[in-house]
Task: inverse folding
């Protein structure tokens, strides 16, 4: 069951990218996993990647860009 809302999902024929953007110290990849945002795509038979982007409000810039492939 999907709980919450993912920020961005990009679907290609063989790959799905699930993206979460954070402006806090919270780990965006952790949120994707804990909330199960990827679960509704498991039956599609495609590669699924998690992408997490963390922003720094003071510097108004990207602090971290993390990614991970769902195994």
Result:
């Amino acid at each position: 069951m999907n709980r919450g809302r993912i920020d961005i999902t990009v679907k290609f024929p063989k790959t799905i990218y699930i993206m979460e953007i954070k402006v806090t110290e919270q780990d965006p990849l952790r949120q994707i996993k804990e909330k199960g945002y990827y679960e509704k795509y498991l039956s599609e038979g495609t590669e699924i990647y998690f992408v997490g982007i963390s922003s720094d409000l003071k510097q108004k810039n990207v602090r971290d860009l993390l990614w991970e492939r769902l195994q």
In short: Residues 4 and 35 are 7 Å apart (CA to CA). The radius of gyration is 12 Å. Strands lie at 8-11, 15-22, 47-56, 61-69.
